[in-house]
Amino acid sequence: MARAQPTAADTSPSVAASALPAVVEAALARAQLPREALAVWVADAQDIRQPPRLAHRAQSPMNPASVMKLVTTYAALDLLGPSFTWQTPVYADGTVQGGTLHGNLYLRGQGDPKLVAERLWLLLKRVQAQGIERIAGDIVLDRTAFELPPQDPADFDGEPLRPYNAAPDALLLNYQAVAMTFVPDEAAGIARIQYDLPLAGVQRQTQVPLAPAGTPCGDWRAGLRAELADPRRTLFRGSYPAACGERLWPVAAADPQNFAAQAIAGLWRELGGRLDGSVRYGRVPAGLQPMFSASSPTLAEVVRDVNKFSNNVMAQQIFLTLALQKNGVATREGARAIMRQWWRERLPDAAPPQLDNGAGLSRSARISAQALGRMLQSAWRAPVMPELAASLPILGVDGTLRRNQAGAIGQAHLKTGSLHDVVAIAGYVDAPSGRRWVLVALVNHPNAAAARPALERLVEWVHVQP
Fold first, then answer.
1. Other Cβ atoms within 10 Å of 42 Cβ, number
2. Where are the beta strands (DSSP E) in 174-223?
3. Which of 33, 175, 391, 401 could be 307's S-S partner, Cβ–Cβ 3.0 to 4.6 Å?
4. Distance from the first to the final alpha carbon of the chain
5. At what angle do helices 117-129 and 259-270 cross, to 10 degrees?
6. Cα three-residue angle 395-46-347, rounded to 5 degrees
């Protein structure tokens, strides 16, 4: 792969290149944000010999929030290949007679980020296709491919039930979350509640009263007065406005340590399977050969989900998979070491990022606008460019940018990032002339959210550059 070479302008941008556009300065002033809160780097995507069009505080290490996913996903596409798939092998340690497995069934997780409800259903149907209707022993879940310390989902921001706080797991099922769908039935005066995954041992409310006629949709989740923190039950003490129509509410597992066991026990029973023992965690016995292995979608498909919708737990699964594939077991430090080596090989003259978990859901992650921009230039010349570029949200069209109405709709592929004190964008912007620009903009400030209009003006400014 060709390596980006530094230019004089990379390290010593001209006065003109370092001056923010007037429209961006004005937007920052309206937001009462200092220009020092913003770092920007804009350069030609293909011609690395040209100096940057704009470089403002471009060498300052900044928290990039979810824009860090670009580093993880580009590295994974480069190291693993776009067609890489995760395998979840299934084993049996006994004989099958008369529809009964006289022994245990084993599932070995190997980091599949997309083992969602429908794919888990298909996996268990494949078990039944082996002639197994009853398991006389246990279902054993092997999660040992990832060696991670215990994680409190409330640690980051005190919101343990937000799906973005789900922790990675070698056997990650349904993103470690449950999606609840509310469907109003005005004739019956209720909203029916559908759950995408059954959980053994959890009592669930299946309907809720409708709010009085004429109630606006508004903050419908607050109106439900949900009690979701108890791992033994799901309860709603409020009502649901019919004006909302059908709505989806994804919630992280209340008991993440036992979620996989609850999900598999519940789904196995729902499929008519019988289990004499229990669903428990353990290891696959050495030497046991799998009956079959369930394949994930390709890495290219997974990367698209990660970047279009900024899925944190999927990004962490990819990050850890880099270590698993090289070392046979995944640790965060192992993944960081692989990423550091990859960066040195691909971008030896660009300041390396400070990585945490690969997703950007971090207070310690850092990268400069210039380094990220140089990486995007490298990616544009790489064989995996089509897969990476296609994974980025299209301005005003899809993903996390579908509602953005900046004046370059359909003309920019940009990854977004957002934390309480961070707003960021990075990717590619097309000009009417046919030129393609790399754009990186990182805002770190307690009032970073107010910078969104300034970033929109910046995208518009880049779009019209000749």
1. 24
2. 177-185, 190-195, 203-204, 207-209
3. 391
4. 28
5. 60
6. 100
> Are the beta carbons of 375 and 347 closer than 8 angstroms?
yes
| Rounded (5°) CA angle 94-111-131 | 30
Cα 343 from chain centre: 21
Tokens of 403: 């509602």
74 vs 389: CA distance, rounded Å: 10
Parallel, antiparallel, or unpaired: how do β-strands 139-142 and 279-281 relate? parallel
Q: How far is CA 70 from the centre of its chain?
A: 11
Helix ranges restricted to H, 12-148:
15-18, 22-30, 69-80, 117-129
Question: pLDDT tens per residue, the chain (466 residues)?
Answer: 333 333 333 434 443 577 899 999 999 999 999 999 999 999 999 999 999 999 999 999 999 999 999 999 999 999 999 999 999 999 999 999 999 999 999 999 999 999 999 999 999 999 999 999 999 999 999 999 999 998 888 888 889 999 999 999 999 999 999 999 999 999 999 999 999 999 999 999 999 999 999 999 999 999 999 999 999 999 999 999 999 999 999 999 999 999 999 999 999 999 999 999 999 999 999 999 999 999 999 999 999 999 999 999 999 999 999 999 999 999 999 999 999 999 999 999 999 999 999 999 999 999 999 999 999 999 999 999 999 999 999 999 999 999 998 889 999 999 999 999 999 999 999 999 999 999 999 999 999 999 999 999 999 999 999 9
Structure tokens at 66: 């979810």
Per the CB < 8 A criterion, the answer to whether 145 and 166 are in contact is: no
Cα 445 to Cα 349: distance, rounded to the nearest angstrom: 28
Report helix, strand and coil shares of the chain as percent, to nearest 5: 35, 25, 45
Helix axes 22-30, 452-463, angle to 10 degrees: 170
Amino acid identity of 395?
L
Please give the Cα distance from 227 to 236 (Å, whole number).
6
213-248 exposure pattern, b = at least 16 Cβ within 10 A, e = fewer = eebeeeebeebbebebeebeebebeebbbbebeebe
pTM metric for this prediction: 0.94
Specify whether the backbone of 212 is left (phi greater than 0), alpha (psi in -120 to 50) or beta: beta
Q: Compute the half-sphere exposure of residue 300: CA atoms within 13 Å on the CB side of its CA.
A: 11
